[in-house]
From TrEMBL:
<protein>
    <submittedName>
        <fullName>Hook1</fullName>
    </submittedName>
</protein>
<dbReference type="GO" id="GO:0008017">
    <property type="term" value="F:microtubule binding"/>
</dbReference>
<feature type="region of interest" description="Disordered">
    <location>
        <begin position="1"/>
        <end position="36"/>
    </location>
</feature>
<dbReference type="GO" id="GO:0005813">
    <property type="term" value="C:centrosome"/>
</dbReference>
<dbReference type="InterPro" id="IPR008636">
    <property type="entry name" value="Hook_C"/>
</dbReference>
<dbReference type="GO" id="GO:0005737">
    <property type="term" value="C:cytoplasm"/>
</dbReference>
<feature type="compositionally biased region" description="Basic and acidic residues">
    <location>
        <begin position="7"/>
        <end position="26"/>
    </location>
</feature>
<dbReference type="Pfam" id="PF05622">
    <property type="entry name" value="HOOK"/>
</dbReference>
<dbReference type="GO" id="GO:0030705">
    <property type="term" value="P:cytoskeleton-dependent intracellular transport"/>
</dbReference>
<dbReference type="GO" id="GO:0051959">
    <property type="term" value="F:dynein light intermediate chain binding"/>
</dbReference>
<feature type="domain" description="Hook C-terminal">
    <location>
        <begin position="1"/>
        <end position="233"/>
    </location>
</feature>
<dbReference type="GO" id="GO:0031122">
    <property type="term" value="P:cytoplasmic microtubule organization"/>
</dbReference>
Length: 241
């Protein structure tokens, strides 16, 4: 009996619940009821929320695209900045090379002046050697004459005094020749030393001239690269505009 009573109570509650549910549904569908008005207001608010969500999604997508574009542009700007920094370093390097070129040009000019000075000294040494050779020839001639005079003096006593004079002259000439010979030997050594120094200077001059030419060519190549880089940067700037 109790079970039947409970079952009956359950059925009654279920029927009552269905009736209430139907009534609530009818009230919600009826815009004239309080529940219907609230339900309609909630639906309108829900639609507004949906529209707002759609708008936010669209804005989010727009911001995402802008972020991607800005990120890409930032990378390009960083690359451009690094390129400009590289060009700046190259420009500084070019300036240093130009300074070295100027210094080397001054060295070359100094070496040319030194070479000309050595050439003049060599010419002076050549003249000195000719003078020594001439004195040696004169000494030989006087010696031969002295021998002849000595032979003649055996035959003619009156010539003895003159022979003595000639002997003194010969001795003086021999002393002079000795001095000049020593000077000539010293001149030969000096000439050899100057020739070696001239050769070294000429070699250094040729090396500097070659370095100068190489650095000029490098400078022209770097300048061309720098101008091309500036041209590319200018074209890139026009594309952004």
């Amino acid at each position: 009996m109790q079970v039947a009573s409970l079952q009956e109570e359950k059925n009654h509650l279920e029927n009552h619940s269905e009736a209430i549910t139907d009534k609530v549904a009818d009230d919600l569908d009826d815009p004239n009821t309080t529940s219907g008005k609230k339900y309609l207001a909630l639906q309108q608010q829900l639609e507004q929320y949906k529209d707002e969500v759609y708008r936010l999604d669209a804005a989010k997508e727009d911001y995402r695209l802008k972020y991607e574009f800005s990120s890409k542009e930032l990378v390009e700007l960083k690359d451009k900045s690094e390129s400009l920094a590289t060009l700046a370093d190259e420009a500084k390097s070019l300036k240093d090379e130009v300074d070295v070129l100027r210094q080397n040009e001054e060295k070359v000019k100094k070496y040319e002046t030194t070479i000309e000075s050595y050439k003049r000294k060599l010419e002076d040494m050549t003249d000195l050697r000719r003078t020594v050779k001439m004195l040696e020839e004169k000494n030989t001639s006087y010696m031969e004459k002295s021998v002849e005079w000595e032979e003649e003096s055996k035959k003619t006593s009156t010539l003895r005094s003159q022979i003595e004079v000639y002997k003194r002259q010969v001795q003086e000439l021999q002393s002079k020749v000795t001095v000049e010979t020593k000077r000539g030997d010293k001149s030969d050594f000096e000439i050899k030393r100057l020739q070696e120094k001239l050769s070294a200077v000429q070699t250094e001059k040729d090396r500097l001239a070659q370095d100068l030419q190489n650095m000029k060519e490098n400078h022209e190549e770097m300048e061309l690269v720098r101008l091309q880089g500036m041209s590319l940067d200018g074209n890139a700037g026009n594309l952004y505009l």
